[in-house]
Amino acid sequence: MNEDRPYNVLFLCTHNSARSVMAECILNRVGQGRFRAFSAGSQPSGRINPYVLDLLQSLKYPTDDLRSKDWAEFARPGVPSLDFVFTVCDNAAGEVCPVWPGHPVTAHWGVPDPSSFEGTEAEKRAFVAEVHGMLQRRIGIFVNLPMRSIDRMSLQQKLKDIGRRADALSGEATA
What we know:
The chain is of the alpha/beta class. The chain has a single domain (7-171), classed as 3-Layer(aba) Sandwich (Rossmann fold), CATH 3.40.50. Helices cover 36% and strands 11% of the residues. It contains five helices and four strands. It has helices at 19-30, 50-58, 90-94, 121-143, 152-165; strands spanning 7-12, 35-40, 84-87, 105-108. Strands 2-1-3-4 form a four-stranded parallel sheet. The chain starts with 6 loop residues before the first strand and ends in a 10-residue tail after the last helix. 39% of the residues are buried.
């Protein structure tokens, strides 16, 4: 991985409308210039989930440039070389992904889908906030890994562990 530039991270989800978009926003904020996050989907919906957009705006994330986009945009020549690719939904994890430039380290960090959650408006908003919290905890662990002093295989294992360990984090106060 190139230490002279921010680490480029791509978050994938089937529709790129909720989970991957939240992860992109969170990492761009907490990565403090050390990370540059993107998101995409295998079958983009063409819109951002309105509950997700409301939450992100209420938390003062920049949202003007957010859009649901196809993951093929990140497999073209001339795109930023990727250091990490995370799937945040089970469907995307099972799909055949494009070949990513940069031979990134990959991991699956599946979280529940806010777009398929059934409930009242208040319950939907609460669920979106809960999923945001899950992603925020995982990303908080990720940005604090000793990237420069860990070998690729150990890093790969730590990233997988974050996804496995964090699957039940919704009840935890801290990671």
